[in-house]
Each structure stands twice: as structure tokens, then as C-alpha cells.
Batch of 4 targets.
Target 1
Amino acid sequence: MTGPAVPGPLVKCLVWDLDDTLWDGVVLEGDRPVPRPGAVAALKALDERGVLHAVASRGEHAAALAHLAEHGLHRMFCALEVGWGPKSEAVRRIAAELNIGLDTIAFTDNDAVELAEVAAALPQVRCYPAERVGELAALPEFRPGPVTPESRRRREAYLTERRRAEAERDFGGSSARFLASLDLELTVLTATEADLERARELTARTHQLNTTGLTYDVAELRALCASPGHDVLVARLRDRFGDYGAIGLAVVAHVGGDAVLELLLMSCRVMSRGVGSVLLGDIVRDALERGRRPVARFRRTPVNQVMLVTLRFAGFEPVERDGDRMLLARPSPEPPAPPAHVRLVDGRQR
């Protein structure tokens, strides 16, 4: 079994079987297998690029985690599903835990039956036999482009997010009170040359929280930054647990009396923080302060309905429709209320 001829979206997470895949042997049968060198090399190469790793394997969770820890690999995995149920269900839970689409997940296993079960239940997931693990880093779907600081920190960011989730489970109060306790700070900056590779990466990786699905290469972003008729904005987020890095991007075109939001996207890992509406509100306030009408383009995709909901809640109303494309405008001259749970820092260059 191999991956599809057309790779589709870039792989954000590779889900591993353990026994006879990551290592030769079965831990619960008393084996003490050493991880395969080729598998470890693939783990590290993909991790460096920002591809996450997770586990969907047969066995007992404690034993698997202990064996991973024995070989210094336990922190390489952002989610561990070890048990006896269908692996497709384990993969589905991993996607939900990491808040990424199933079409951005790949799965590797030594057992052809397990591969077939996952492929049949989750056709969006790309499946690869264990003997191909050493080849994966060379495949286009595993090559997101130049490595950015955020790429190198992605695994740690997800592990930090796990600590946040644990803190939320232990919090005892409402979700709103927990968000307020995070001391969230969103900084909106005019993109500079140093931001362009990360901005390109965001357009390539972000599908669910993306208003138009547009992608830009670095040269296109550089040209937009130099254009007097455009603003390219990068949003950075931090809280009391640490720095999320650059998690949002917006491209605004100034056309006549309109400020046209050509693209708004947010990293899926901050979906639960409610910062997409905060960034949108800041863009609306800036447009109104300049005496411009806030306008937004939206193109429907199979996964981005939440962004249309975000636009509508912010007061945008449809004014033009053309198939899956829509133009929305915000008729109200009143600025949106400032965010209650996020400290907003305006770092734009004006």
C-alpha cells in the first residue's frame, strides 16, 4: 500500500505504530527492542521540519510510554493512543486532540490489515507500510519548504498546549474564566522580511481557519509588503505558559473607500483561544479609523465554514455571491467592542 498519486495537503502529523514498526519486537511479549535507526532518523528529520508525530498502536499505554522514555523518544510524540480498539478510531481521536484535519495526517504500520482498516475508514488519511518509513522525508507531502523557527518549535508548542489542556481540566471554573486566566496577549505587526517565510508557511499549512484558501510564495508576499495599496499583517500570541509564535496572517487591500480583507487565517492550534475574532476586530477598527468600509472576501472550501461564521458574527453581511465565492461588507460605522480576554498590542508600522 502506498500514498495517493496526488499528495493533497501537506502532512502535518505522522501517526506511528510501535511494535515491528518503530522497533523490531513486541514490548508486551517481553522484548526490549531498540528503535530502528532509519525510523529514528525519519522522526528527527520530520520533527525538524515541523511535522508532528503521534502513536496509534496495540498494547498498554504505560508500557509503551515507558519503553519510549527508555530510549529518549517519549517527548517526540504529541499524542499517544495505545490500546486495543480500531486504529482508525485512534487516528480520529489524534486529529481531534491536535485540532488538525484528517487530510493532513499520514499513518504507518507494518501490518497490511491495519493499513487497510485505516484507509477504508478514513480515506483522507495517507497510509504507508513500515518498510517505507526511511523514504517518507523525501516525499513532497512531507516537505513543507524552508524551515522556520516556528517549524522547529512546533512540537514543543503542542506539548505546551497539552499542559494548557491539563490546566484547563483541573481549573474548575468556566471556559471563559479559564481563558481570562491565561493572560493572552495578541500582537499585530506589519510583516517584515523576517516574517515572510513563516507567513508563506501559514498559507500553505492552514486550511480550516482560512477565509479564501489563498497561498502566497515569499516573492508574492514581499511584493504585497512593498505595495502602498496593501497591508500585510502578522499576529503573534503568547500567554502565561509561553509563546505561540506567529499564528495569524492578514492581507488587506485598500481599494477606493474600502479596506478589502483578501485573506485572514489563523493557525488551527489557537482555534479554542478565540483570537481569530480579535484579529478581525482589530482590522475592522483600523479600517474605520482610516474612514474606510471594511470588506472581506470569502471562498468556501470543504473545511472553512467556521471563518464565514466568524465574519458574520463580526457584522459582515454578504453583498455579492458567485458560486463558492462571496464578498461581504460591514455596514455598521461602530467599531467592535475591545476583546475581554485578550490584551491587544498594536505594533503596526504606519
Target 2
Amino acid sequence: MTKEYKTITEIAGPLIFLEKTEPVGYNELVHINLPDGTTKRGQVLDTSADVVAVQVFEGTGGLNEESGVVFSGETIKLPVSKDMLGRILSGAGEPLDGGPRIVPEDRVDVNGASMNPYSRMPPEDFIQTGISTIDGTNTLVRGQKLPIFSGSGLPHNEIALQIARQAKVPGSDEPFAVVFAAMGITNEEAQYFMEDFEKTGALERAVVFLNLADDPAVERIITPRMALTAAEYLAYEHDMHVLVILTDITNYCEALRQMGAAREEVPGRRGYPGYMYTDLASLYERAGVIKGLKGSVTQFSILTMPGDDITHPIPDLSGYITEGQIVVSRELHMKGIYPPINVLPSLSRLMNSGIGEGKTRDDHKAVSDQMYAGYAEGRDLRGLVAIVGKEALSERDQKILEFADLFEDRFVRQGRDEDRSIEDTLQVGWDILSELPEALLTRIDNKYIEKYHPAHKSN
């Protein structure tokens, strides 16, 4: 027989504190029965010999000392099934699309473990997003965790949706799915996401979790774990290759800070909890490929840098854990360029594992290096032009300066629905490189110039 405790001594923000309970487990699921007959859910946050702290998912409004608390004896579990594909769920896993509850094939603990490094396979399969600045210069590899660093007001949500629509492994007929989790978004953004998924047909192969800004902060901490649990189930039980898109990690970290303040913890950098690095790692490290299993989990986590500060604790810690970053530029956005991805501070540490002959194309690395070098020099020359004027530049430098403009206008810029294949991306790269004298193509082997350069291909 389950016991109901009416020993609430304190209610602080989203937390309640109980005394005189029997031993309970950390992260245990709790049901709170209110005097008006309604029930709320919570989770054990801290437990000691004298006091148990419980975080309440639906907020503590209406709770008082007469409320009864029942400990379930189990952690939060997500009902999982292949029927999840095509569904839109709340951040707590409840249907938002008017459909029925999911009939579970299994119920899985959302607090999954990080992947054992010994069991990891080195990622090596190229994932095509259809976005040239990612595919061409900062390639995503199956099993990688690659965050997008953005800023307030930049089109990171549009980029996320475009990736969700277009991502695929070229030449592979293996089942591919997308798990999309949005945290702390407005109702307007939620409608935009839902309409886009339904209109474009991307919903057929997607599972969507939406946590709204007016939902309790505590639920925001559960949402990414729900998404990753669904992704792991589809990947390792149904042999699917799953791309997980989490937006916005900054809202998740704000919820962590809010919970830390409610627990009166000693704050770390800028008020965030000292354990935020460990907490973020527990999410990011659930991506990868496991030896002996066919499926994989790849992660794109999007975070908005407060004040566009890349040294802020959230992007700083994320950069330590993940395998690179894609940086969205406010300067390119102000020029009207979409997607405004700046390739210079962007990095994919696993790019070399997923490109080359048999994966993308033999000239991929050389073209990427040459474009990067030319664009970097061209950006530096813009600063010089502001001081001495364009006329003071040598003919070589003027060519490089023009290349930087071409790179932004033809390689970076593309339509919101434009899905470029890797061949298209590399062709655009060759087209703009052909505007430079061949003598300046110092990072490309002559055999690739003879094979792919437009001037030689036409001969």
C-alpha cells in the first residue's frame, strides 16, 4: 500500500520540502495530491535523513501543507514506440497534436547514461544538410555533436528547421529520423515550428517535443532528456540513424540557474550552477555510434550567446564538450545574407573523418582549405581598405578582396528552401575559386585543378 505524506514544511519557488519520510531515491517520481482533488507531478531533487526536496513540474500554485505527497518508487520514464514518429509532444511527453496517447512498446528512464568511450565507434559517415557552409567547410559526421552558436534575433530557428527538413546520408537507404526539441519557446514560435513540420512533410520522419516559455522551468530540464531518450530508442532498438536538434540550450541553462537559486546553492560563474559543465556533458555525451549496433545518434544543439559573447559560460563550456561549433554571424545577417554562418570561427573537429573519396569527393578537403584561406585573407584586407582605400591594393590583393565578396554572395548565401547536394556545394566552390588566378590556388593539388577547375573542364 502506498503511503501519502502530509509533512510539507516549506514551499520555495518550484520546490517543496518534506520531513519525516522513509528513505527515498534520488530523481524518484512524485505525485502530489492537492486539496481540490487535482494531482501534480514532481521529482526528488535532494534527499537526506531529515528533509526531502521535491521539484514540482506544473508549478507550486495551489499547494499547501494539506497537500499529500506520494513517492512512486521509480524514476521518470518515457513511453516509447516507433509510432512516436510523426507526433508533436509537450516537453513532458504529452500529445500536443490532438492525437491519442502513445501506446508504449517500452517505458525508458529519461536519465540515460552517457556513452561508454570504449564502446564508441569513430564517426565517419557524412551527413548532408543541404547548407553549403556546413557541408562544404564544417562537415557534420554521423554520431557527432556539433552545436550552433547564435545570438538573439538571428535566424537560428530557420536554420534548425532547414536542417531538420533536408538532412540525409547521400546514397544510403538506411532509415533516417529527426528528433526536434524546443525549450522555452513562445506560443508563436511553437505554431511556426508545427506549421513548418506539417507543411513540408518533415513531420513524417520526426518526433517533436515543444516546451513553451510559460511552462514550468522544471519541465525544461526534462525536455532534452525526453528527446534524447526517444532518439536512443529509435537508434538502438529500431536501427535508425537519428539527428537530434535541441533549441535553445541557453533557455535550458537558465532553468538550471533558476533551480539552483531556489535550492540556495552557491553559484558559479555569472550565477550559473558550478555543476553546469557536468550537466551539459550528460546531454551532449549521449550522441555517438556504438560498436555492434546499426543505429546512431547525432546532435545539433543550438544556443544563443547572451550579448553575442562567445566567452559566456554556456558557449564556453559547450565548446569544451562538443566536437566543434557552427557560428551564426550578426554581421552577415545585417547584410541580408542567409544563412548567416561565419566559417572563420566555425569548426568541425571530425570533418576530416567524413569527407574525401568514397564519402563526399576527393577534392573536398582541398577546396574547403582554399576557400577558407582566401576568405580569411579577404576579410583582413577589408580592414586595410578602410584605412588606405581600395586603389592602394595590389592587383593580387584586389582579386582576394573580390573573392571574399563572391564567397559571401554565392557560397554562403542560399535560399531558405534550397537543398544543395555536396556536388552542388563543391561546384559553387570551384566556380568562385575560378575567379582567382590559378597561381593563387596554393592549397589545391594540380591534379584536382586539372580535373575540376572550370577552365580545364571545358577543354
Target 3
Amino acid sequence: MRYAYSVTSALLVGGAAISLATGYPAGAQVAQNDDSHMARVVPRAGAPESFADLTAQLQPAVVNISTRQRIEVSGSSGNPFAGTPFEGLFNRRGGGQQQQPQYREGQSLGSGFIISADGYVVTNNHVVSPTGRGTVEEITVTMPDGTEYNAELVGTDPQSDLAVLKINRSADFPFVEFGDSAQARPGDWVVAIGNPFGLGGTVTSGIVSAVYRNTGQGGAYDRYIQTDAAINRGNSGGPLFDMQGNVIGINNAIFSPSGGSVGIGFAIPAEIAAPIVKQLRDGVEIERGYLGVSIQPVTDDLADSLGIEQNRGEFIQSVQPGEAADEAGIRAGDIVTKINGQTVTPDQSLSYLVANTPPGTTIPVELIRDGQTRRVNVTVGKRPSEEELRQQQQFDPDAEDEDPMEASDNAVIEEKLGLQVLPLTPQIARQLGVGTDTQGLVVAGVDRNSDAARKGLQRGDIILTANYRAVTSMQDLENTIRTAESENREAVLLRIQQRGRQPAYVAVRLR
């Protein structure tokens, strides 16, 4: 965001500071909408009496996009015993032959806009992606006058949800260009044109509600322009225009408990979209930076347990062995506060900063560890494919659980955390499906009214550390609790191993 401050000259006369511009004593506070201030604030482009001329100029370049898909229908083998032990018997005696898969036809509808006279079109990836086990067989671009053209898919980028098409026709098409979304400010007028609910050529107007809105979904591009211009299903991929007719955003999503517009829509900023669109159009592989960590925001509970400020940096839950963060010495439990000199905030997340750093670049990373600020240099890696990211080591969730665990009688732990724990023996480790050399405390019971229960802790979880210190006995955990209380902390940071999951940090409030 950009903030404008008026600078007023002042003259010190006889010990009294007088503002030459306003007549107010120097340093005196006045209302932000005081007439003396507002007289100098002139809108860059005020709302016109009508958006009709602007719309008439831009609408020819905005198109409707539809796909025809072939979708395999699950459970369509015709075998009434499908999925049972008698499935093979039916195929041998009843059907006589293996049933062929059955398909149905599907479609998707969305919006897009032409960015060049030779027919390149920008839209959202999800508009032209297949549904479920389907394949896209045809993409149709429909012009405002109803003319239809077949289009081919030039390139897609699922992470940013962008796609580029090419109309299969030699013609001189009307087109629009990207503007500078970095200049957008809350309160600026915007116009959206698209295809909501299949109603082509629909125009809505509103203002920029917020810039660089983080929706909390995570990922490399969780950074949007928020607008109250009506956006509904079918507007996806359509342009968001400023008053100069520049595309400053690509309509992408809405917040809606009802499924319709409630005045909260999100558009991918042009400053993010334009470089990706150019790479897709040119056939250049899109490479993103990667550290190899799992992260979470610094919540109130985390901040209390660590004794740091809230909304400062992001917390490292785990580090992937052999990846960039591991090679640089970043550890689980660190709080990363700066990336290459840029502060990590909710609006400028760690994922965003790293993903937009070219792989192979060496950058400084500032972090907090054990209450001390440290700095390491990281050579950013290349983000693996989505399939590779899905492959992660997990503990066996089907391990046997034969003997019940007896609850502990440690009153302090039960009173302060709402947990009953006992030392992790090799026998219990085998029951839980973890290595017999694993050290920690196993949760034998959880008070359902405790913060631990609200945070998802349950019987069978393993407490590996408390406030970064290993806990191999109940006394270790009790000592950590007493130390936290002596330092006036309201929570304790536990590292928890749950069955079938990677270890994770959980801040549990003290009672």
C-alpha cells in the first residue's frame, strides 16, 4: 500500500509554531476529512456519469469460453456385484465378457479476454481443466456478437490458475492489454466484464476493496485484488478493468456462503499474471523457488509459547531432508522473519517470496531460533512437480494396538495441559507404529474441555519436545511448564507425532 502524507512548512515566531498552510498550531491533530485536507485531494479519475463508453470500447475483446469434455462414469461396469468378492463370478457367468467403461459428456463455462490481434486468449486454468476423470475434447471461444471459434490450449499453470489459448483462425481480433496493478488503491473504481451463469457480456462495476489480499489458502500466489464488483460463477477468467481501460486483474474467485455474489470477489493482480502469461505464450517452462519446508503462521498461541510478537514471520513445522532449507541449516521450530531483506507478513507470505525467487539464487534468510535472531544464506531450489510433492514419508497407520495404556498420575501436567501422559516404551512404540528408538511421552488421555483437545491432540499422540527441549520423562514436561509460567508465558509449544503424519508443532495454552 502507498500512503500519502502532506508536508507543511512551519515558522517559529515568538515561541509559537504556526502552520503557514492551515493556520493550525504545529503538531495539532485535525480530522482526516477536514476541509483543509480534502481540498488538496483530487481523485485521479472520478466516477463517470456512465460506464457505457468505457464498456463499448472494451467489451469486444472479452469472450466466453466453453469446453466439451468426455468424462468416465464411475461404477458403470453394469456388474451389480462390483466392489464385492462376487465381482469376478459375475463377469465369468453372467456378463460373459468384461464390461467396457462408460462415459458421459460434460462441459464448463467461463470467461476470458483477447490479448493480441492474432487471437491469444487469457483465462483461468480451472475453466479449461478436465473434470474428475475426464478429458477436454474441444474448447470454444464465443465472441460478443455470437461468433464461435475453436481454440487450442497453448499452456496452463495450475499454481497461479492461469491458462493461455489460441483461436484457430487467422483474423484481426480486438484485444486489450495489461495495466499496472501495483498502482491500484483501495477505493479506485473498477469494471468487470464476463459470463456469469452463462449470461454473456455482463458488466458490473465497483471499487477496489483491498490490494494484496491474502485469502489464507497458502501457495505461491495467494495474493489478490479484492473488489465489490459483482462476480459470480462464470466470471472466472474475465478481466477487471481500471478507469483507463487497462486489465489490472483476472477474476478468479469469490467468498460466498450462498454461492452467489456477496460483494467479496478476488482477482489475480496483473503484475503477477502478465509475466506468467508471457511465459506460457512463449512456451517457456515456469520455474519457481523452493525451500522444502512446511510452514504455518505465527498465531497468538504460538507467539505466547515462544515469547515473540504476533504476525511476525512464519513458523517452520518441518524441513525436507536434502532440500534447500536443510542444506542451509534451517530447522523445524525456526521462525523465518525476512527473505532477501523483505519482511515476512500475512500479506507477504514466505511461500510468495520464495516462489517468486528464481531457482539457483542465493539469498539471506533471517530467522529466530531459541529466542536469538540468526541469519543464514540459502540457495533456492527448484519447486518439484505436484506429483513429487505428494510423495512424502508417513508412518504406518495400521500398526497393531494390543495393550491399553495406563494413564499417568502427574497432577501438574493434567491440570495445566489437560493431558495424561506416560513415558514412551519400546512396547508402546511398536503398538503406535513408530521406531523403538523414538523418545518422548505418549498421550494416554485428553481432557475434552482443554485447549489440547481443541487443537486436535488425542490418545496415542507422542510428545517429542516441549519448548524445543526433548521430553523423555514426565518430570521434563513438568519442568517446562513451570519455566513457562515463571516467564509469564500463556502457552507451551509441543512437537507432536500423530499416527500417519509428519511431526508438527502445536501451541497449547496453559490452564
Target 4
Amino acid sequence: MRFTTTLENGLTFRNLLNLALAASSVLFSVVFIYCIYRLFQTYDWGQPFTKFLCFSGLFALCLTLFRHRQQTQSLPNFLFIGEALFASLVVIAIFYRMLNGYGDALFTAPTVDIGYTTEHAARLFFLQGENPYLSQEINIRPELAAEHRGFHYGPAMLLGYAPSAFFPGVGYKVMSMVFLAIAAISMCLLIVGNMKDQNRWQVRSTVLVALMLFFLPERLWYEVFQVGANDIYPVSLLLLGMVFAQRDKWLWAGILMGLSFATKFSPAAFLLAMFLRKDIRMMFLAGCVIGVTPMMAFLAWDYQSLMENVFFLRFGLNYDSTSLYSITPPVLHVLFPLAQLSALVYLLVRNFGRTLSTEETLVCFTLLLIIIEVTFKEIHANHLIWFYPLIAFIVATYRHKLFPQR
């Protein structure tokens, strides 16, 4: 019997080999990501070299999958059906385990500083009509100068978490759940929009694998449910903005991304940089201007207090034990901003004359964001929230393409 003989089910031995490679690619990617997320959960503070290795692994995985995106594949439906069933069971198990562990925290006030200062600032603004950037009581920390003891995030954060001013504790956590749902739905819509020509089982399995990877890290549940990190809000705005960009609704895309910038300028600034291209849409720029109006309003109210607390404080941060700065000789610290600038300039030059697809834009953004994160002065656990939906989107989209087909 020759190896090219067709089997009874219509598969050749070469097709079986490619099927095995595709299945192995999925299995390796999922297990690899799970191991990295466990390390992130275990070493949530300090351990900068471990975090560097974890991010390096994610960077290599995403880049390899993306570089193999052009290889053609013809995979049978039973593979997609099997993936969909497996991912569905895992998602159910994740929700069962995490809701049992962290569900009760939905009704408690945030305990991390980025959470309770947001709640405090919302009460100050909505109930007392005061400027939270002028307050010296929001961040009462001895290492902070008086001008840096106000609210440390953009004014659009106050809009997103406005209910926390009227319903302390539960209002904050409920809004975080809403933003978590928006992020998940937006990720799924991006996948469906990219797979219009694929069969329904291929689309379904991709969506379910993406949801599985998104909800897989325990750190996501701990940060959003337990301690009350607010990073899911600006990320949900970016993902929803990408959904509108994918559908050529450029005004709304710009509004949402501008609003994300007015909430927390990073990571929004780096996604906006991916749109600085020759074919940039004027309606997108107009939308960005509309989106940042909350920030402009507070700049008009008192520009110095906002600049001191939102921008100058961030750029003047001292490094801590979570960053590579803490284990690198001071003479070499200049390499970190140079790496950030080099990565940003490279992508700006690379993309300027191109019309990027949605997935290519998100891949460039994710790779840039990883470089920015590992070379920043802090690598805190709440920053990981930025990456979970992006990694899930990329790996689910290209999950069969880690190993070259034969």
C-alpha cells in the first residue's frame, strides 16, 4: 500500500500527519499558556526574571503563530467539533471553580489601591462636586509628594465607575463584571468578523477556544473579582473600538479608543499608534478627539493637577522589585527606554504604508505591548489583564499553525 492511498474516510496519510500536527499545535499552545499563567499567579510580586521569561514565551508563541498564518490547511470538521466540545467543558469547569472561589467577593468593596481610590474619587466628584485631582486625601502615601496624592487615572475612569459613588462596593464590582462581559463579547465578535468565509464549526470552535483561554488565568478572576483592579474597563473599550474599526465604523472606533486613552493612557496610546498610517481615516481622528473630551474638560478645570497625577507621576516613577531595573546594573538602565522606542519606531515605519487587517493590528499591538511591559519600571499583576484577551484572540485564531504543514 502506498502512503498516498486514500483511506476509507477520505483522508490520506499526509492529511493525517497534518491533522496530527494541527492538533498538537493546539495542545501545545494551550498547555504552554496554562503553565505561563500558573507562573504569573504564583509569582505575583518580585521575580522580574521569571516574568521576563513568561512574557518572552508569550511573545515567541504569538510571533511564531502569526508568521505561519499564510500556510494553507484543510482540516476536517470532526477536529473543530472536538475542539468546541472540549473548550465548552473547560469553560464550564473554569466558571464553576472560579465563581466558587471568588464569587462572594462581588459584594465586597475593592481592596487594592487602584480600586478603592477610584471609588473614593467617584464619590468625591459625583456626590461632592469636587475635583479628585486636587484632593490630597485619595492617595495618602508618605512616598508621594503632595501634588501626587490625587486620583491617578484618567477622568473617563470616573464615568465608567460612576455607580460606585452611589452603591459603594457592589456598584464598583458590578461595573467590572459588565466590562469583563464587553471584553469577552468584543473578542468573540472580532473572531467572527475575521472568519466570515469559514464554516460554522470552525468559527464556533475558534470562539470557544478563545473564551477558554481568556477565562483560563486565575489571576484575571482574582484581580477583577477579589481585589478590584479596574484595567478591564480601558481594555474593553479598546476591544469594542476594534470591533467598530473592523466594520469600518471609524467614528465610533475613534470615540471608544479616545475614551480608553482618557481612562488610562496606557495601553490605549500604543494601540492608537498602530493606526498612525498613510491611510488613516479622518473620521477616526475626529472620534478620538471626541473620546478624550472628559480629559480636556478636567484640563480646563485644573490642568496642573491632572498632569501631575496622571502623566508626570507615571513618567517619574521609581522602579520596584517587579521590574528588570531591580536586577540590572544602573549603567544599563538606558537600554530599557531605548528598547521601547526602537520597537515603537520599527512598527510605525513598518506599518505606515500598509493597510493592516484587524488581526495584524492586534498582533502588532500585542507584541509592542509585551516589549513595553517587560522594560517598564513596574510589572504589576493588574497589567496582565491587558494581555489576556489579546493572547486569547491571537492563539485561538492561529492555533493550528504552530508547526509547519507537510
